[in-house]
Amino acid sequence: MHIISVNVARVGSLFSPASPAGHQVASAIHKQPASGPVELGRLGLAGDAQADRRLHGGPGKAVYAYPLEHYAFWQNQRRLAGKDDTPLAYGALGENLTVEGLLEDDCWIGDRLAVGTALLEVSEVRTPCFKLNVKMGLSHAVRLMDQSGHTGFYLRVLQAGTLAAGDTLTVLPGPRTLSIAQINAGRRTARQPDLF
Hints:
By secondary structure, this protein is α+β, with helices and mostly antiparallel strands. The chain has a single domain, classed as M1 Pyruvate Kinase, Domain 3 (Beta Barrel), CATH 2.40.33.20. Helices cover 19% and strands 28% of the residues. The strands form 3 sheets. The chain has an 8-stranded mixed beta sheet. It has a 3-stranded antiparallel beta sheet with strand order 6-5-12, with no helix packed on it. It has a two-stranded antiparallel ribbon with strand order 2-3.
């Protein structure tokens, strides 16, 4: 298990500058890979921001991690919708950490991740908003994320430090009472009538 890419963004516009006036929405979903080591503080990565701090960021959602293994799913969904077939760049799902080898089934609330000189803790699942639809160019991206369970997970920072692409992730198991996959399954069951 390791970090493929560390991704950050400042607050900008969700839509391109060519979008009609009135359709500008502040967002920091357009994450870009950082070069070299990145400092990690209690509230997230240096050089990263959140546009709406009521819904994003804070101690419980300081860092968002997303498995690289799900990128093929999104690439296929975009291809089926007739979108640009260019491979998705790291950070495409708005994640701070593109990780490999750590999926929702293997990730439990309270698990700790030692990476670089930092220590993080799995804190909660991602609940996507409409900005994901715009970012992915798919009107149903939020629904696809919910249905597939390919949500990724948020991390709390327990020990600040430095991390970089290529760093190994070491999982230190927590109480293991509730996994990210179990939370996703529960949400799908609760929303089942809304999915069709």
